Amino acid sequence: MALTSNQNANATTDGLYGPSVADFWQLLKPRVMSLVIFTGFVGMFLAPADMHPLLFVISLFAIAAGAGASGAINQWYDRDIDAVMERTRGRPVPSGAVEPAEALSFGLVISTLSVLLLGLASNWLAAGLLAFTIFFYGVVYTIWLKRSTPQNIVIGGAAGALPPVIGWAAVTGGLSVEPLILFAVIFMWTPPHFWALALFRNDDYLRANVPMMPVVAGETETRRQILIYAVLLAPLALAPAVIGMTSMAYGVVVAALGLNFIRLSWVLYRQPDDAAAKRLFAFSILYLFLLFLGLVIDRLLVTSGVLAVL
């Protein structure tokens, strides 16, 4: 029997045609994937080797796809806690838009294809690192760490810190101290970034029984830990300038950003409210973006001779 126009208009919402393209896109966690694309690109851009532009784009696409695939696996496993958290209950799996088996299958297929694509477009070291990243986020962090320890985001942050390393390896076929410094910066940035979020989303984690730092150790200890990480992160972010990876002009800018990160962390420590946590969380995103953007701009200016004297 043919559908009427009204029935046809409601077919998608009634689930007749199953999940939409937009639902599968949300499974990839596009906001997280955008960070992976950016930091992966920076790692590739800074790498001291040449790569064909087409292979460069394909490799970056594969890195992004791998990150998205691990996000789909994460949403498949976390569907129970996502359903009770206000921040995540609208995701495709807990909302019923995508079946759990569909999410898992989607994640596994994209994972496999992304690793193979990166291996063919660049090299198998980069592909192996991407496979490890997917496994670490999808299994080690999601299935094991997230529900078992308040250090979940500390250890699990390694997955989010690997894209610039993968990007560097994709271009050069090897590793060196430079991408490892970029890894360390993101690794140290991750806990204060997510703990600031956890402070003003604490009720969500309490309902879901996820042992985030504020839930297990309390908000006072969480704010103290944020301040400690901010103090450790600021000098670490200067390492590219110290080893000659960038000019000292980059170091000056990053030092100013680091001091502001510490200032906002101190304000949060002394002023324990959601407004202070939200300010730090918002700045932490800007901080990492400006830090990595600065790496690109500095390289362009040095290459052009503008910063040759520095």
- How many DSSP E strands? 0
The largest sheet is: none
Helix count, per DSSP?
16
CATH class of the largest domain: Mainly Alpha
What is the number of domains?
Answer: 2
Radius of gyration: 21 Å
What's the overall average pLDDT, rounded?
A: 92
Keywords:
310 residues, mainly alpha, 76% helix
Short description:
The protein is mostly helical and 310 residues long.
Tell me what the structure shows.
76% of the residues lie in helices and 0% in strands. It folds into two domains: 23-175, UbiA prenyltransferase (Tetracycline Repressor, domain 2), CATH 1.10.357; 176-310. The chain has helices spanning 5-10, 21-27, 30-46, 53-77, 79-82, 100-121, 124-145, 152-161, 163-172, 177-200, 202-208, 213-217, 219-236, 239-242, 248-270, 274-304. The protein contains 16 helices and no strands. With 310 residues, it is an all-alpha fold.
List the topology elements.
Elements: H1 5-10, H2 21-27, H3 30-46, H4 53-77, H5 79-82, H6 100-121, H7 124-145, H8 152-161, H9 163-172, H10 177-200, H11 202-208, H12 213-217, H13 219-236, H14 239-242, H15 248-270, H16 274-304
Helix pairs in contact: 3-4, 3-9, 3-16, 4-6, 4-7, 4-9, 6-7, 7-8, 7-9, 8-10, 9-10, 10-11, 10-13, 10-16, 13-15, 15-16
